[in-house]
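Lab notes, practical 5.
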Amino acid sequence: MSTNLDNIMTATNLPNGNYIPIDLNLINNPQYETLSIEAMMLHALYTMRMTCSIYNAQKDGSWLDETGLPFIYFSNEEAAALLRVSERKVTNLKNNLIEADLIQVARHGLKNYRIYVANPKAPEKNSVVRLAFKNYTSTKSLKTVEKESKEQLPELSTVDREAESASSNAQNLLTSTQKNLAKQNTRATRVTTTLPEPTASTQDMSLIDGLSARYAHLLPEQAFQRFLPFCNGNYQKARWFVDTIFKAKYASTQQYIQAGLPAEAEVLTFEHNEYFKADIGDAIAKAIEQMYRFKTVKNPEGFFYAFMKGFFTEKTRQYLVDHYQLTAELQQTLSCVQLIIQQKNTRSKPLKTQKVAKKVS
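Output from the prediction step:
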């Protein structure tokens, strides 16, 4: 039989590691029989991200909470894009995983949510295993070794051995984190040459990548691409841009709260006010153009903060006007915000006048 499939799978090109691992206990354990395949896929995504947190925790102690437990950040927006479903659907899937004691979500700060991921439980011994995973066995013959060390380390390979069932105890499959850690230990004990330490620029780029991943649920990739070229690979500069953006957002939010808008209003959040994410990249580009191209700004740091604060204030006002009925109460809130801005500008002008007078004298 002929086939027109491209890159058809054969014995010579079997895939190696390009799969999302779904724990077979989710299928075999009757405790999880109500979980949909989408919920299983979401748990698999969380598991992959969790291995990254654990790996980084082993290296530098990051991604650990106050009690030393690893956690992840994984926004509903990111999960929805990967699973090709709506964010509301992701919320429902998360609730299913919470009810099954497979994840726990804890609020961290004003906007972030830490996710703790649990391993699925193996089925009871008397349970009928639906997917026994007996379809591959070892084909290599083992040679006996007369003088074998008693302290010989177990093989790291997860492919060349027989798996009797899908339970974690029987399979003993290593996660990607365990494989990396095992390889690190192997290199440390068997390799005699000293590995070159990463350079400062490499470390900074890794930290910048981590910074981008950490705030991906709030700041789109486009926003990072606007200011990263001006950081010259320096993590501290990239961190300053991110911190200044959130400081400006906080200051703008306080103006609306002071004007009477409830602090829990959805319009003030990145998750619900789509104008923030949609337009922040262009706003950063305009600010940087003034700061670096035209070179008309004497205080770039202060200018960027004020520019971003004005951006968040305007986008909040625009969202309120576009999505809410312009009642007398809302009109008063918007007027109060405008008054707060005018009063602040009025207070700052005398200070500038005094500075000019000192220079002239």
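Observations recorded by the TA: The CA atoms of residues 354 and 360 lie 10 Å apart. Residues 328-360 form the longest helix (33 residues).
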